Amino acid sequence: MFEFAIMLLPVAAASGWYVAFRHYNAKLKKPSNEYEGFFKGINYLLNEQPDKAIDVFIDLLEVDDETIETHLALGTLFRQRGEVEKSIRLHQNLIARPQISLDTRANILNELGLDYMRAGLLDRAENIFLELEKMELHEVNAVRQLLSIFQQEKEWLKAIDYATRLESIEFKKQPLLLSHLHCEAALLYRFEEDADIIKNHLRKALKIDPLCVRVNIISAEIEVAKGEYKQALKLLLKIMDQDRKFVPVFIDLILNCYDRLGQSKQKFDFLSELQESNESTIVVSRFLDVLLEHKGLEEASAFMHKKLRQHPSKSYLKLYAGITRPDKNTELEFLKSIIKQFDNDVQNFQCKQCGFTSVDLNWCCPSCQDWGVIEPIEI
Fold it and tell me: Which residues are annotated as a binding site for Fe cation?
């Protein structure tokens, strides 16, 4: 049923074309002797020969400001169906007509720019929208499209300029977008070792969005690379106040800093406090590991059994039920098996906007293209 409905869409567009065609003929009092051509075009559409149908309809209907909407409707239809080459061809044909007005030409240019974006011809799309942004009626849309293009091209400095400009035009702040664009710009200069520019972008990102976890992650990774583990740890612990959901994601980076600084007690205290308010299996795994090391088998065993009673639905209950105890070291082997199982767990992430899921942390959602909307799923 759905496929049949899709098939009728070109017919509907062609029908609209035909109505405009008749209206045009009536205005000029021409005889309607081109019915044959119209039905020939319909036949091409029904037989999935849209290229030939386009030729027929373009020949049938002269382009002017009264009929342009019908032409554009068919072009949009092709683009939405993924037939971008056909849409490009149609719009290029329209733009070449000398009798169209400047406003009509701008509308066609906009559609052609969208065609190029859909086809991945970003340089051509960029040139079109750079022209359109000079026109007041098309400025906002052109700025939006250029912002999208510069993000796809990873032209982060240009993207920052256009995001800032869009905020001023629409009177709407976009802290998530701008903070992440500044993070991307900082990473752009990371391998050039230009510390001042990097710090400037990260400082701006944090000022725009004080809850941007990514700023502290990037800053900490830079400090780790320099061997400045104390400063890196200070930055990483700020995540606790920004968004605690991300702590398990970067917990090994945090623990590495404690190890490098020789702060085993502080590491133990950190994990002990964290596991009380965070049920992530990764957190439980890391705490169980240090508990065995610092407090011994008895306390580690008591801790794990308490966790099992409190959260019987957790994955470690399944592990517990399946463990056999063949020798006198069964409790130790049991705990080690749990730790090993936890290490095999994969952290998953989900977009809170569109529901996209992934095993990788994407700061920009690959599906809806929004920034800062991906969150860890507790495991």
Answer: 351, 354, 365, 368
What DSSP string runs through 177-238? HHHHHHHHHHHHTGGGT-HHHHHHHHHHHHHH-TT-HHHHHHHHHHHHHTT-HHHHHHHHHT
Give the amino acid at 136: E
Least confident segment among 30-34, 122-126, 157-161, 368-372:
30-34
Q: How far is CA 247 from the centre of its chain?
A: 22
Q: Residue holding tokens 């903070």? A: 179
| Percent of the residues in the chain that have a pLDDT greater than 70, as a whole number | 74
Average pLDDT over residues 39-44: 71
Residues 122-140, mean pLDDT to the nearest whole number: 96
Residues in binding site: 351, 354, 365, 368
d(Cα 361, Cα 366) in Å, to the nearest integer? 11
Which residues, at least 6 apart from 49, have a Cβ–Cβ distance to it below 8 Å? none
SS3 239: helix
Among the listed residues 14, 5, 95, the one whose alpha carbon sits nearest the alpha carbon of residue 50: 14
